[in-house]
Design goal:
By secondary structure, the protein is of the alpha+beta class. It contains eleven helices and 15 strands.
């Protein structure tokens, strides 16, 4: 009967993300069709057994006649997990069938190929236009690592006549409102969502309130082993300083790591500002860039996140440690694909520290045509104020900055 229905355009209603890097994390999500026309969503966790979880479902929903089929389905899914890995993200999708709306879940596991997941889901549910599903699944390519756990507990979940505990976790850098919405959508509790949100907010505030600026951080930490007094007297606004950190690979880890970029970008997008995240390619204003940042990145565009200190606490704490030396330190994050170029050659009105967190980038630093320019004197950022590289002479620095040896340039 379902195959005879005319499937109308789908609506992607809610993006859900869940990390599986903690004990008891979710392995898969399964939708079960019960004999009384009900459809339920079951989250199978690490530590569950197919037989035990199956019989719990049968008892709670009073469908003992389906026990063998449910247990067999769980066993088959567990065999899949050996190659697919644990659940990392899931999308809730509304499909309109006739006059009714059905909710389905497309799940992404650690070892999945995003294109194959999207194609399989669209084929199963007869969705002709699959590009939106493919784009959204591609944007959720999982990272096996997440920042520090701030909060971990069990949420009361009712299954039929039974009440159980479902794991809830909040990682550093994640947004309490998004996590509460996710767990309430995933577990569908009868009550408790407002209390969960309050708990996650309080845990988030307590975590960051307890953070202190570590000893030795600030300008001296930034320029080390060059003494900060030496830096200010002989380099600042005079000539470039290049410091290579060959034996301190994790020197900047407390600020941000490559694994933090996705939550940073998504949190920046919540600021509702067109300037929060720029998508550019050898230009300061790329009007033809894809709107989805993952799609843009794989197509050669760079991502620029402005004023990260506004919403990323570790960087905010670090900026505060620089207030004694600088008027208003602010931080941008740049993510550029291999062989990509974010901006053309240009001058800036501000002085800049550049920290290479991951990957590598080729830098050329020239003697500026105008020393200490005001904003209206900057060159290379608009068509009205071009900058010809051939007029600059040889670069003062021409280097390839690479990881794993973190390196710092200060201008």
């Amino acid at each position: 009967m379902r195959g005879a229905e005319r499937w109308r355009e789908y609506a992607l209603i809610n993006l859900l993300q869940l990390a599986a890097s903690f004990a008891g994390g979710p392995l898969f999500v399964e939708q079960l069709h019960l004999s009384d026309s009900r459809t339920i969503q079951v989250v199978f966790h690490d530590g569950d057994t197919a037989t035990g979880r199956g019989h719990d479902i049968c008892r709670c929903y009073k469908v003992e006649e389906l026990c063998d089929a449910i247990v067999s389905k769980f066993k088959a899914r567990l065999r899949e997990i050996v190659t697919r890995g644990p659940l990392v993200s899931a999308y809730a999708v509304n499909l309109e069938v006739g006059k009714t709306t059905e909710r389905h879940v497309v799940a992404m596991h650690l070892n999945d190929n995003p294109q194959e997941v999207a194609t399989s889901f669209c084929a199963e549910h007869r969705i002709a236009k699959c590009d939106r599903v493919a784009q959204m699944v591609a944007a959720s390519i999982p990272s096996p690592h997440l920042p520090t756990v701030i909060f971990e507990a069990a949420m009361r979940v009712e299954e039929g006549v039974c009440i159980g505990g479902a794991p809830v976790v909040l990682h550093e850098g994640q947004i309490p409102e998004q996590r509460a919405e996710f767990y309430c959508t995933l577990y569908q509790p009868v009550q408790g969502c407002p209390d969960l949100l309050k708990t996650l907010r309080a845990a988030n505030v307590s975590h960051y309130a307890a953070q202190k600026v570590p000893g030795g951080r600030g300008l001296q930490w930034l320029t080390s082993p060059v003494e900060s007094d030496n830096f200010m007297e002989n380099y600042w606004q005079q000539k470039p300083l290049y410091v290579e950190r060959t034996t301190t690979r994790h020197y900047y880890d407390h600020l941000t790591r490559i694994e933090d970029l996705e939550p940073i970008i998504r949190q920046a997008q919540l600021n509702n500002s067109d300037q929060s995240v720029l998508i550019v390619k050898q230009s300061f204003a790329s009007t033809d860039a894809p709107q989805d940042f993952a799609v843009a990145y794989v197509n050669g565009f760079s991502l620029v996140v402005h004023t990260v200190e506004v919403f990323w606490k570790p960087i905010a704490v670090f900026c505060r440690s620089l207030w004694d030396d600088f008027l208003y330190p602010s931080v941008n994050i740049y993510l550029t694909p291999p062989s990509g170029v974010a901006f053309p050659i240009h001058t800036d009105s501000q002085d800049t520290f550049i920290l290479q967190i991951a990957g590598e980038k080729h830098w050329q630093i020239f003697q500026p045509p105008i020393l200490h320019p005001y904003k209206e004197e900057m060159l290379g950022k608009t068509a009205e104020a071009p900058l010809d590289a051939s007029t600059l002479g040889p670069p003062l620095l021409d280097i390839l900055v690479q990881m794993p040896s973190n390196k710092l340039q200060a201008l």
